[in-house]
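The aim of this short unit is practical: by the end, you should be able to scan a pair of folded records and say something sensible about each. We start with the first protein, listed as its amino acid sequence and then its structure tokens.
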Amino acid sequence: MQIENHAEALRVYSDLVKKYPRGGLWGEYARAAAVSGDFDLAERLWGKIRSMEPNTADLLSRLAWEYQNIRLHAKARELYRQAADLEPRNLDLQLSLAWLLARTGSIGEARAAVSRCLELDSRGEQARYLAGHLDRRENNLPDAERQFRDLLASNLKDPYVQYSCHSELAHIFDRMGRFDDAMAQLAEAKKLAQQTVNQEAERKRIDAWHEDVLLKTKSLPRNILDTWGKSFPPRARKPAVSVAFLTGAARSGTTLLERILDAHPALAASDESLAFSKILRLIDLNAPAVPAQRLNVLRLRYMSNLAKALGRPGEGKILVDKNPSHTAWLPAFLRAFPELRVLISLRDPRDVMVSLYFQNQTNTNHLGFERLAQYYSNVMDMWLAVREWDGLVWMETRYEDIVADLQKEGARVTKFLGLEWHENQARFHESNQEKPVMSTNYNAVTQPVYNRAVGRWRAYEKYLAPILPALEPYCKRFGYA
């Protein structure tokens, strides 16, 4: 497993559990299956474990964590609920459920779970933070501000809660029009985050990876899709699918667009699943030809995992895989799925920078504007390279156009996918309230479209000034000059 020879590792695990069925290896085998991307096998093995062992709260919570790791959140919620019901006074279990519901459930459900945590420990840092977070999401800004200030004054021990309180206050001040106060809070938050990361090593690692991927992509000829298509013609492809990849820079409106598309009865959109990432490394871009049988195995694996991520039947529907920032997957995606439609979400790069800076995600919390601009450049340079390929089926759509006229731009995108606009799409915020949102703007996409995020960057222009020259070429290229 450590050298990523997953097929051989799974074969050995299979032999081991047959030889030592009571040896305690089932959980390790299941985790190996999940890591390798065989979610069907992992789920069967987790079912086997449940049939062999008493279904204690500990076992159920461990399995919930495994499901959460592969972003099958509906199953994780179900198991955490069962575990929490078995041990209603177990604070750690109740907190695990509360955190997951705050991200993937309704506010009402999350509020009930947080209240149970506060009943067990009224001074608990995480539960108090979640209570304030839910208040902020419901626009109860004065109470939320008070709670976060009280938390910060209480000598917090949890560094993530400490960071998040500053982050939440920044969002509150932004809504109040107190823009300098918002930036002061984020400056404090980022100081905390930067203490936990070797920034130089992380910078070198990420830049080297992006440079390598971009160079490989640029080395491919413009007619590469024709070459790949001839070696893997339509008659050889199984299953026959209609799939689109929705990507672009993070914070460019991909989640909003995914929700609008998913509301169409003939579409099924997945929100940042791991389905393609699990076959990515198995696709050799440089091989002159890849056997159709091998590509079909990978396609079937991808489709199976995507179906699990969707949590509902997707047969006969057009499938949309939304994964912002993973534009680097495009060459491999197109090799395995030559019929792929590519949908790129655009937004004013300056607004993207502000939104990224405000975003609370552990892998980017330590980044300042300069690094965020480089991150944006890495993603969009990749797209600009692939966009030149002959025969690519692609469309760019602007967040600002969706906000200005939801039906007009939504219909244009829907038609690109081969369908007509459906009335359900205008009410996208009413459907799938239970559907997890991997983006941190999960509150915004369960509301009707609003325009307050358009041109947001102007309130922070003096803070953006050092990176505006780096963004200018992209503003011009994408029509935001």
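Turning to the second protein, read its sequence before its tokens, just as you did above.
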Amino acid sequence: MPSSKTVRDATADASPKRTPRRAAPSASAKTPAARTASPRAPRKKTAPAAAAPQMPDQGVIDAMVAEAAYYLAEKRCFAPGYEEQDWQAACEQIEAQLRAARNPLR
């Protein structure tokens, strides 16, 4: 019969080994944002509070007027002789739209 010491050693080797417990994550590492943020991380830049819209250049304004004049002429079925009136009306419409964009509270 084997000695009791030998049986104990054999059973101790047969038992599964325990893995050491990992330390619990710190409070700052629980959220993804907290893991990536560091105290030296640059802050996001914010846009100015009341940035005024920029005026389009003259070429863009002329294209807008030409398109508006085309649609005014289309309403009249392109009847000849009203080209200047369509252009003037289109200019007034575009100028009014640009003024409204610059001063939205008016």
